[in-house]
Amino acid sequence: MIQEMTYKPDSMILNMGPQHPSTHGVLRLRLETDGEIVNKVEPVLGYLHRTFEKHCENLEYPQIVPYTDRLDYIAAMNNNLGYVLAVEKMLDIELPERVEYIRVIMSELNRIASHLIALGTFGLDLGAWTPLLYTLREREMILDLFESACGARLLYNYMWIGGLSHDLPVGFVEKTYEFLDIFDAKVKEYNDLLSTNKIFVERTVDVGILPKDLAINYACTGPVLRGSGIKWDLRKDEPYSIYDRFEFDVPIGNDEIGSVGDSFDRYMVRVWEMEESAKIVRQALDQLPKNGDVQAAIPRKIKPPKGAEVYFRTEAPRGEIGFYIKSDGTAKPYRLKMRSSAFVNLSVLPEISEGWMIADLVTILGSLDIVLGEIDR
Amino acid sequence: MNAQEIKSILDVQFSDAILGADLETASPYLIIEVSRWHEISEFCKTDESLFFDSLMSLSATDIGETIEVIIHLHSFKHNHRIALKANVKKDEENIATVSDLWATADWHEREAYDLLGVVFENHPNLTRILLPDDWEGFPLRKDYVPQETYHGIPVPKVKE
Amino acid sequence: MIEFIFDLFKPAEFPIISRILFAVLTFAFIGGFVIVAVWLERKVAAHMQDRLGPMRVGFHGILQTIADTVKLIIKEDIIPSAADKVLFITAPFLVFMGAFLSFLAIPVSEEFTPSDLNGGLFYILAVSSIVIPGLVMAGWGSNNKWSLFGAMRSAAQMVSYEIPIVLSLLVVVMAASSLNLSEIVGAQKVGLGGFSGIAGWFFIRNPFLFVAFWVYIIAGTAENNRTPFDLPEAESELVAGFHTEYSGMRFAFFFLAEYAAMLVMALVVAICFMGGWLPIIGTESAIPGFVWLLGKAMSIVLLQMWFRWTFPRLRVDQLMTISWKVLLPITFVLVLGQGVWSIWIG
Residue A8: is its pLDDT beyond 70? Predict the structure, then answer.
């Protein structure tokens, strides 16, 4: 922050954020602009730093779950899942079938909800208001489902080590089927309103192209990686939980419109992924065991063996989230590091946005779909 | 390729630099000599049979006398994984950056420097990333004592 | 007594009082329109977006804008310490003036025009350009980089779009052979084949006028900085563009100016392309002329609202491309075509 900026007489240094409508939170970008052209982008992070990792070293394993909610607060279920699976891997816990299915249902619903926000805010970044309201309308239905299951609408604390906090309420399965029937028709509405809009296509196609090799070198994951045309999805390629039991496609960006890896591809991958997630939820609901426990038998005090360590990664809506946990034999983790998907995806921003206009920078940032809670932790 | 095979490939050239290994845990790792860190990382990335083209995560842990730096590698081509560790002596030793090999390491290393005070040599821009630039100390070290005030604002005490 | 009040409006008898009265009445009319239009915009937006919009203040929130206006007026007047005070303070009024002055030449009905200028159309085009220096002053005077960006964008945008506007209205002028707005309306009384009513309106009189109508709507929307051309205040890029630093009453004036400019643009469309005060069938109707005029104008205002809540925003270079590479060549062809049409077909 304090380092010297080389002053060029033709350029203007512009502070975008931390209070700026389209930085999706409190991200600050320091820009060097020449008129409308952005010559240099430098993200400045830390405005939402809440010392998550330090907190974890002073909390017992089960107490950490609610803190994971607050990382990527748009997709709290997926964070819960990533953390509890990592701890369960350390402890080698066998889970009841019903728990596995409910976890998949919840995290896929949350993926849909998260992508809906991504779609809506991306439209908003481009100046289209209405899609946001439409996507929020469907997200609201998912939040209602979550609320009926665990009482919370944003920070669920639903998945616990060895199980869930509550069983599904009566009528949840039927209501979810109902939602899926409504939702399938709505995707067409988003495509009609936004994805096929001439102005939208003009604004996003060929903007901020992220080539394959750059995406791998920057370890981009999730829709950002798949938008660049790499078929890689942990749910498929490194199946965790019970994802190997479901049939679904992994959509990737293509060159039908514009080149592979542009903002439009990253956007479209999210649209397609929502449809795939809806498929998974449907299958999981069909196969869901009618009865069963929602809590496995776990020790009273969770104490992984001394020296045990694990790095476990799962596919969250924004990409891979990884939990590196190191135990010293006590009830508190010795070290917990979270590999955040948005943090890594954001680091590619300077690379792909330099030379574009300010309006394009907003487009590219929107297409990366960042959540500051996860970046600053 | 499993962890044992990966180790055997590395053993051919670097047997003297591999100080230890645990290949049985959930995430197998090798412990590497700090001075050979960059060399071995580069081999892991470029060797045809290893080809670790993706760095999943870089973390650091304070384990008393030393700080343990760990990178989790993954290969899209071969779909295998390994972790490399190095024990860096606190405040005395530096470790080479791997941000020239994997661009993603740039921010991860800045974070490790920010929170644990690991100095990565030849890093292009080793500054604090999450904390303010003028913060004192490295919070994730086990012997960290928070500063009294920050620009006149009292810093809350840690409750024991 | 009543006759005396009417006499007050006659410039010949009370030169100063009549003009002040006109100004006050116009201002009151604009204020009233804006209050309704802002409420309407919020309602239109809400219903397009599956929600209700303001519902609490009055019947279906009809008094919401009045409450908002009161709030804006009683807000603290903030001038940034680094701002250029003179420019900062005058800018909103200058911007409003551009829209306000245009009303002078608008023929309200067959009998009544505030000022029946011979070059009425030319006058409206000229005064509406006052807005540009106003916006640049606001952007520069705020001493904020985002404001400056907004001002630069709006200057470039409005200067570019003036040209298609002028040329598309030139087609109308050629068809009516007059710059006088009353005469332009008069020329739309009887159309092809002697049919009156809608058949006489310029926008369906011939293909060139029809295209000119749409060119004017596009360029006029851009001139008013409305979505999809709202780049000067693009909230996702420039925070709030040229009015980032404004609050309270001064901000309200920008708001007032935006909606007044929208109405002026809609009135010009109604007069030049849609027969002004003329009824939809025949030449006489029980409904007074100004109701027809306002009704037509409101339909254009609603069209602009529909645009706003449907489209994303263009980028600067795309905006310029549309003006210089698409609209401008089209209008050249239109002027030529209308000339040929006037000579051979009439």
Answer: no
Instruction: Give the closest-approach CA distance of A69 to chain C in angstroms.
Output: 28
Examine the fold and report which residue of C45, C74, C103 is the final residue of a domain before the chain moves on.
Answer: C74
Q: Do C310 and A193 touch (CB under 8 A)?
A: yes
Q: Choose the closest CB to B25 out of A2, A308, A335.
A: A308
> Which one, of A128, A142, A236, lies nearest residue A190 by Cα?
A128
Nearest CA in chain A to C48: A130
**pLDDT tens sequence across A150-175:** 888 888 888 888 888 888 888 889 99
- Indicate whether C67 and C147 sit together in one domain: no
For residue A58, the model assigns a pLDDT of 87
Choose, out of A22, A36, A192, the residue to mutate when testing the contact with C (most C CBs < 10 Å).
A36
Indicate if C13 and C108 belong to the same structural domain. no
Q: Is the same domain home to C222 and C97?
A: yes
At position C127, the amino acid (one-letter code) is: V
- Concatenate the DSSP letters of all residues of C222-265 into one string: HHTT-TTS-GGG-HHHHTTGGGTT--HHHHHHHHHHHHHHHHHH
Do C123 and C236 belong to one domain? yes
In angstroms, the CA C53 to CA C305 distance is 15
Same domain, C199 and C109: yes
Whether C45 sits inside 8 A of A129 (CB atoms) is yes
pTM: 0.87
Q: What is d(CA B153, CA C207) in angstroms, rounded to the nearest whole number?
A: 72
Residue contact B130–A216, C-beta within 8 A = no
Domain range for C210 is 80-344
A298-314 residue pLDDT tens:
778 888 888 788 888 89
DSSP secondary structure string for all residues of C154-180: HHHHHHHHHHHHHHHHHHHHHHHT-S-
Torsion of CA A206, A211, A215, A218, to 10 degrees: -100
Distance of CA A141 to the CA centre of its chain: 19
By the CB < 8 Å criterion, does A353 face chain C? no
> String of b and e for A110-140 (b: at least 16 CB within 10 Å)?
bbbbbbbbbbbbbbbbbbbbbbbbbbbbbbe
| Phi and psi angles of residue C314, each rounded to the nearest 5 degrees, phi first | -80, 170
Beta strand pairing call for B81-89 and B29-32? parallel
CA dist A187 and A195 (Å) reads 10
Q: Is A140 in CB contact (< 8 Å) with chain C? A: no
Two tokens at C265? Answer: 């643009």
Instruction: Answer yes or no: do C60 and C100 share one domain.
Output: no
Can you list the positions of beta strands (E) in A153-283?
159-160, 163-164
State whether C34 and C183 are in the same domain. no
Residues C171, C258: one domain?
yes
Q: What is the SS3 assignment for A85?
A: helix
Instruction: Report chain A's terminal Cα–Cα distance, integer Å.
Output: 19
Distance from C-alpha of C51 to C-alpha of A193, rounded to nearest angstrom: 17
CA distance A103 to chain C (A): 32
Residues in chain C: 346
Q: What is the ipTM metric for this complex?
A: 0.88
Where is pLDDT greater, at B158 or C337?
C337
CA nearest to B108 within chain A: A344
Do A69 and A155 meet the contact criterion of CB atoms below 8 Å apart? yes
The string of DSSP letters for B34-89 reads GGGHHHHHHHHHH-TTT---EEEEEEEEE-SSEEEEEEEEE-TTT--EEEEEEEEE
Instruction: Choose the final residue of a domain: C20, C46, C74.
Output: C74
The tally of domains found in chain C comes to 2
A351:B27 CB<8 A: no
CA separation for the pair A215, A320 (Å, rounded): 13
* A212 vs A260: CA distance, rounded Å: 9
A326:B102 CB<8 A: no
Facing residue for A359 by CB, picked from C50, C237, C309: C237
A289/C contact by beta carbon, under 8 A:
no
